[in-house]
Structures are given as structure tokens and as C-alpha cells.
Design brief:
Structural class: alpha/beta
CATH topology of one domain: Rossmann fold
Shape: globular
Distance between the termini: 26 Å
Strand order of the largest sheet: 8-7-13-14-15-12-16
CATH class of one domain: Alpha Beta
Oligomer: single chain
Helix content: 25-40%
């Protein structure tokens, strides 16, 4: 008998599994319906031998030294600062919008102070910022919103920015200097040997058994475990009894090219043209030397694996009803993006997983309780 079943071998499930196995000395069964570990961060060499991310680019960045310290137990790192260009009006321009973006787009020669004054003339005052459109037009004005944000957001979410919560575009800064890094976090780096190898080390513990290609629904009626950590979609756990929570999905087209480099930066966005939203070239991210290169085209979709919770008030209200059900579920902890219906970055998922384990450990006692009667209540997050 296992003490724990962990549903999902992505960041949330793997971190909690490692902590329970290492700190509590308890037996853990980790399952995943996919045939691999690492969740959406899964990377592997393609047919040409180029390391790619099967589910689109995953760039690690964080301001938390504690998160870096924890993950460094399972990987070494290579420094990497991600840069993104957007194809706008036939030009490749930096995104997030910065001083060079504005000067090149409009043929100006502003300095930082001049850009700030210019922005003051184009911003549209919004009495109450509630939507993604409100965020952008009140920051950079209507024209930059139309060129960089409106089309991209409509493709990504299948909704107009005026229909989405402000959180969607509030994540993207505007800079009046020439900083063209996509992120400004203290720690920006990639696992030296890839994410999959990091997960392999994390799950390599005598107290952890891993079963891949296994669906929780096929096991839940014949349990041989005491407690559960669930990281899948929370509405699926409850058989969608209150209705389905909306998600956006993605379709990935992986292409290998017989050239050393395909584009000048890791990712190029296409807000105005094409059906896809962006193209990523992985050798920028991994530092791999190879005579060929591989890129991924991303096509947003309304169907397929769930990737992004859709941030609208009615969806949050439905999630809260599922969260109330989860609070009454005995011996189950819910963690991760899908189980808590939040669009978390990787470091945020790790932080949530470590916090969840701390609550588990505090509630059950800080030492192993193998052989004791199992009991307790559900916890979300």
C-alpha cells in the first residue's frame, strides 16, 4: 500500500512527491496520463537531435532565491535572458514595448524622458481599469494597443481584450529605456541538462513509484493509498458536475530546418498576421550547438489539452464553487495550475507546491506516520 497517490508528474506533483518521500519518508505513487514526466515543461531531442520543448517554450525566471536553491538540488543551470520580437508593420520590434520599439515604429528619436512625455499624449484615460483593453490603452494608447496587443490577444484567447480580465495584459510592462529583456527577474536561467533530466532526478527516490500512461479515473475505484494530491483539472475531478471550466489550448507544429539559425531571438510574436501567435527557436534557449535548427509554431485552440484558465468573472465564480467542493473532500490536497485554476509561472507553481507540502507536514506532523491511521480533510492550494 502506498501512503500517497500523486496525480500528475509536472512541477506541482513532482515537487510534492519529492518532499513527502524525502522529508516524511512515506511511500508515494506518482501517475500521469501522458507517457512522460515533467508536464508541459517536457523537453527532448527531436529526430534531428535538436533539443525542443514539446509544449512550447518554458523559460525559467524568478526573484526567489529559495526556489532556485530548491531546484538546484536537481539541476545545474546555464544563464539565459529571453528576448522577444514582434512582427509589426513588417518590422521586427522589441516586445515588451520599449524606447527602441517606439522610435523605430514611428521614425522618432526620443530619449527616455521624451518617450514618457509622448506616452502622456497618446494614453487614453480610463475611469476604472477592469479589462485587458483598459490596461493597455491607458498605458500606451490606442495605436500601440491595436498593433501589438489586440490581434495577438484575440488569437490567443478567442476573445476581444475588452472581454478579458485586466490580469492578462497587466503582466506585460512598458519601458521607457532600451532594456529588451522579456523578463527582469533576478534569476534568469535554464536547466543545463534540460527540464526532463531535472524531473528525473527529482523523482529518483526509493520511496517514489512512477507509473506513466495511467489515468486517475482508472484507479480511483480500487485505491491502494491513504491520501491524494491532485494536480489535474479540478472540474474533471468532480466529473464536471457543476459544468466545465473554460480553458484555452494550443496546437504545436514542430519544424526542423536545414540551417543553423532561423531567427535572431528565441521567440518572434505575430500580432497582426498569420494564424499562429509565435515561433520559438530552441537553440537560443538551450545553448545547443547544432548545424540544423528546430522551431515551433503555436496555434491557439478552443479544444485540446487545457493550458490557460480563461480569466473572466463568471469562470472565477464557477471555480469557487468547485473549490468549495474540494474543501469537503477527505484526504485530498489540490495543487497546481489546473487544480487551482490559476495561470502560474513555473516558479509560482514550485512555490505553491512547497507551501502545500509545508501545510501537509504541519497538519500531519513533521515525522513519518507510516502505519498510523490516515485521516484528515481536503486542502486547496
Amino acid at each position: 500500500m502506498h501512503d500517497w497517490l500523486i496525480v500528475g508528474a509536472g512541477f506541482a506533483g513532482s515537487v510534492i512527491a519529492e518532499r513527502i518521500a524525502t522529508e516524511r519518508g512515506e511511500k508515494v505513487l506518482v501517475i500521469d496520463r501522458r507517457d512522460h514526466i515533467a508536464g508541459n515543461a517536457y523537453d527532448h531531442p527531436d529526430a534531428a537531435g535538436v533539443m525542443i520543448h514539446r509544449y512550447g517554450p518554458h523559460i525559467f525566471h524568478t526573484n526567489s532565491a529559495a526556489i532556485v536553491e530548491y531546484l538546484s538540488r536537481f539541476t545545474e543551470w546555464r544563464p539565459y535572458e529571453h528576448r522577444v520580437l514582434a512582427m509589426v508593420d513588417g518590422m521586427l520590434l522589441p516586445i515588451p514595448i520599449n524606447l527602441d520599439t517606439v522610435n523605430r515604429l514611428y521614425g522618432m528619436d526620443l530619449d527616455s524622458e521624451g518617450m514618457e512625455k509622448w506616452l502622456e499624449t497618446v494614453r487614453e484615460p480610463v475611469a476604472k481599469i477592469e479589462t485587458s483593453e483598459d490596461v493597455v490603452v491607458s498605458t500606451v494608447g490606442r495605436d500601440l494597443y491595436e498593433k501589438f496587443f489586440k490581434g495577438y490577444t484575440r488569437k490567443q484567447w478567442g476573445l476581444d481584450p475588452s472581454e478579458l480580465a485586466k490580469s492578462v495584459t497587466a503582466r506585460i510592462p512598458t519601458r521607457t529605456n532600451r532594456d529588451d529583456r522579456y523578463f527582469t527577474d533576478t534569476y534568469q536561467q535554464m536547466p543545463r541538462d534540460g527540464y526532463t533530466r531535472m524531473f528525473e532526478r527529482m523523482l529518483d527516490h526509493p520511496n517514489i513509484e512512477l507509473r506513466l500512461g495511467v489515468d486517475y479515473r482508472d484507479l480511483k475505484d480500487t485505491p491502494d493509498w491513504g491520501r491524494v494530491v491532485y494536480t489535474g483539472p479540478i472540474d474533471e475531478y468532480f466529473d464536471f458536475r457543476l459544468g466545465r471550466l473554460p480553458y484555452r489550448s494550443l496546437r504545436f507544429e514542430h519544424v526542423t530546418r536545414d540551417e543553423e539559425w532561423a531567427q535572431p531571438v528565441g521567440t518572434v510574436n505575430y500580432p497582426q498576421t498569420e494564424e499562429f501567435t509565435r515561433i520559438t527557436e530552441y537553440k537560443h534557449l538551450t545553448g545547443q550547438s547544432h548545424p540544423k535548427t528546430s522551431v515551433t509554431y503555436e496555434y491557439p485552440s478552443a479544444t485540446g489539452d487545457p493550458y490557460y484558465p480563461v480569466p473572466r468573472p463568471e469562470n472565477e465564480a464557477l471555480f469557487k464553487r468547485y473549490e468549495a467542493l474540494a474543501a469537503e473532500e477527505p484526504d485530498v490536497w489540490f495543487a497546481g495550475r489546473l487544480a487551482t485554476y490559476r495561470y502560474y509561472n513555473m516558479d509560482q507553481v514550485v512555490a505553491q507546491a512547497l507551501s502545500t507540502f509545508s501545510r501537509i507536514d504541519a497538519r500531519l506532523g513533521g515525522v513519518s506516520r507510516r502505519g498510523h491511521k490516515l485521516g484528515g480533510a481536503a486542502h486547496a492550494g
